[in-house]
Amino acid sequence: MIGLINLAYAFVIGFAHYLSDSFTGRKKYQKEVRSFAAGLSIAYLLLYLFPELYTGVVEFHRSLFLFVLLGSMVFHLIEKYIYQHKRRNIRIFELRVMHAAAFFIYHIIIGIILVSINQIDPLGGILFFIPILFYTLVSQVSLSNLHAHVTERLSLKLLLSSSTLLGVLIASFFTISTKLHFSLLAFIAGALLYNVMVEVVPKETDGDILFFMLGTLAYITLIFSMGGF
Questions:
Q1: Domains in the chain, number
Q2: How far apart are CA 84 and CA 136, in angstroms?
Q3: What does the alpha-carbon distance between residue 142 and residue 144 come to, in Å, rounded to a whole number?
Q4: Residue 11: which of 129, 116, 122, 179 has the closest Cα?
Q5: What is the three-class DSSP state of 227?
Q6: Which end of the chain is least crowded, N or C, by CB within 10 Å?
Q7: What does the pLDDT look like over 84-124, one tens digit per residue?
Q8: CA distance 188 to 185
Q9: CA distance 226 to 229
Q10: pTM
Q11: Could you tell me the residue range of the domain that residue 70 belongs to?
Q12: Nearest to 191, CA basis, from 78, 94, 96
């Protein structure tokens, strides 16, 4: 049986994917939302997600953090390889394919993690869902950063937006072992760490310090009020 809460999370994230293209094209409030999402995401990583991985380390081994390293490196290595080794016309095509494939697979994993976290601890599901929702609107691994010929085709846009839902469906019909859960969670932690620090956190004079602090404080308030810390 597919949990209604998992379906609700997947549909909301999918809707955020679908709207991210329109959101990124608007300059109004973009700086504030981006800064808020950055503060929220960093607080989630450091206060909840990385501490949660330590339970996996106790149960398995410190080698679990190899998946964190893998998650943080995979996007960087693929993109750098393409930029440094391909001619421009080939590079543009391959970047389109890479971004779409990375987007699709990455958010399938997020859907799987949503289900497995909710099975273990519904509180953890809420604490995972909220930063992922904000991150979805502003991150590089979103519809807004795919090429126009992808986002302008409704069928492809709907397919990519449904990637989280597909992950939820997969996890709902197949048993996710504890070892697989922690491995995927570690991979997502590494990928989030890379994407948040490189793509989400505003650089140099960009961004809004107040909204960055508000995002951090909002997550601190949330995690304490829900007894998750």
A1: 1
A2: 28
A3: 5
A4: 129
A5: coil
A6: N
A7: 665 655 556 666 666 677 778 888 999 999 999 998 888 88
A8: 5
A9: 8
A10: 0.82
A11: 4-22+30-225
A12: 78
